[in-house]
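Support request, please re-run this one:
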Amino acid sequence: MRWKYHAAWLLASIGLADSCTSAYRPVTYADSTGSGITVNENHVFKLSSDGTTPSVIILDYGKDVEGHPTFNVTRRSGNTSVFEMSYSETRTMLDSHMSDGPLSLAAAMDTYRVNRYDIANQSSYTNRLVQGGLRYQKLNLSSAGELELSGVGIKPSLSHTSLATAPGSFNCSDPVLNNIWNTGARTIQLNELPAQSVPNFWVITDQGAFVDSLAPQPFAADYATMLTSYDLEFSVKPISNGFGFTVLSDTLGEGIYIFVNVANSSISAHAGSSELGTAPLAFAPLPPSVELSKWHTVRSMVNSTQVSIQIDGSSVLRFSQTSVFFGSFGLGASWGHSALFTNVSLASSGKQMYSSSLTNKSALQDFLLGTNPLPVSVDGSRRDRIAYAGDLDIAASSAFASTGGLEFINGSITLLGSFQMPPGFFVPNVKIQQAPRASGPQANITGLIGYSFSLVGAMAHYYEQTGDTEFLDRWTPSAIRMLDWAHSQTLSNGLFNISNPTMGGDWNYYDPSLSGVVSKFNLIYAYSLKQWLPLMADAGRNTTLYAQRLQHLQDAINEHLWSNDLQAYYLSDTYKDSLSQEANALAILSDTTSSHGASTILSTLARELYVPSGALPFSNASAAHGWARKISPYASGYHLKAAFHANDSNTARHLLHTVWGPMSDPNRANYTGCMWETLDIDGTPGLGDSTSLCHAWSSGPTADLSRYVLGIQPVSPGFGEWKVQPQTLGLDWAKGEYPVPQGKIKAHWRFDGSDLLHMDVTAPEGTNGTVHLPSSLRKALSKYKASGHDFEQDGSFVMKGGRFTFEQVE
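Re-run finished. Output below.
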């Protein structure tokens, strides 16, 4: 029975995956004969096991790839029923039991990073579900037989066009910076998911939903995550080994997991999303009547801490727990388990809340298990493959500079923006398997309040890049609602205040949550106001009130949050002995620092935060209050932008070479060709095995190198008017292209062997621009030759579309 179900669903996606023109192929492999062996174009991998010692081959793709694993069986003999393929971003985790999985937070990729195949004949195999970011793949035959495989690879589910042909480009005299730009661009590319690229998570049949080795995903009705007492019932036919389900689940699938192992006649309860890695909260044997390949009726009665389970009318498990107290339910199957589910019903307080036979694909939407209707930019290729508002603020600018991925940024803004709540703030993250909402959730509280400001910032970046007035008209009311809510939360002293600690979390979920008056939240509010003032004017809104609010807010920040002892803005009114990297960077970016000076703040950050592997996001004093000593490329991204904003080349060079340089070095351990989510203080992956090593929020330098080192920036939305104003960072030369709505702006500057400056700028017809000479020339300017400009103004050159050249002469 397992083969009948498993193989059918495994091969069902061949048509979808074949729509991609080619597969990623491994670059090298290692086996018992050696390592680093080059993979030839038509390579055949041979595995032979005696049933005691597995035959193992390790494939290395050289950098992260993603998609549908595929291979052809060209020959088999003996017992080939136990063949596994494992996937990992790091070589170390490839040897773990579950590799670098499971990944249960969303249904946008396969839950497990180990796939098992019962190879019965020579055939072609392509997995139905996507494996997210991976560099390494293990082939493992452990049954007594022989296999020969050809065409082993990964069929991409998204664009795999070479970055050499991407709309944006950057090259300079420093190979480290070139690696950084390309690594950030690759990160963006692997997190841009085209519409309808995510396969359906479950397979819907006329008997119900077939689920094979997939973590439960929660029923997604708005009310479901707040349920404390309910009665869940469903019918299930376990096909292989058993099945599972969750109760009291949050939106990311964490709750109480009920593991029903029919094969060994046991049932257990676990805190989390699977039975792995946790001791059971409760355990009991199953009655002999619970068998594989038979239909059973399961009922779970939940009353917050009290959970009881019946199968076919008999009580099989009853327990108390204090791990979670409210939440939804989900249906699934642990690794190697599979089952059919049907006739699910949910009742609460005697009222029927939900029912479905699960025989129609419309049921997929009830659990957010279908495909993604919009093109979207997600947070990570392996984890979490969810749209996050905070990540989007960084990812948007880097996408515009490299892949030109307007549709992905717009898709994520459209989706996230539809989750605006009545007060004005937004939900911080949204699963991508849903259409934009017609109206926002009817709730009055959110988490990660900084992400609501970040979403408003991403909207500003999009309009700045495109000049799309329809977009502006659509989102101006939403941005104003958010900013008006923030104003309503200001105290009599003018500072923005978080009264509910639930809203005070941030990207650093492992650190204490902040509430009250927090410098980061005040300064990101100021930054949002600064970004939106010109946009409001473009939208025909009166900006006088908002300009006054910005001035009053900045005055209050400088009066109350500045620490003369720290020579920076302190962390919060509760932690005045510590400072935040991101908050102080936002102070510079929002031009709040006029009375103290950007140079003072950047000097303080260098003194308080620098470590050999980069810069800490919080000063050392915060460790005594429970803050982790990690390095955040996300927070450092704002630090880098602030350095460029202040024209501080030393800070920019230090951050680029210490934070992002090692991640971008192909010779360093754990290289994936992508930027990492978080680093430990020693520069290794910062969240252990779960660290995402392809995370879009860490791609900030890709935008900054194009905008500040090439110097290409908009003056008016949509680049109708632009400027080229390079910061040289001590480089000999830099050149590249920046995509704009009218085409591309190309910039090339260099210092020749005599330290004389040469510049060459080309812009689309119909645009106007100003070319500024770099702020620090190697030789004083006395004579020059220039062409292609209309006139010179204050040492700069004003031009229309076309080509401008400049040559400094002695």
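The chain has four domains: 28-157, 203-367, 376-704, 718-809. Residues 718-809 form a domain with the Maltose phosphorylase, domain 3 fold (CATH 2.60.420.10).
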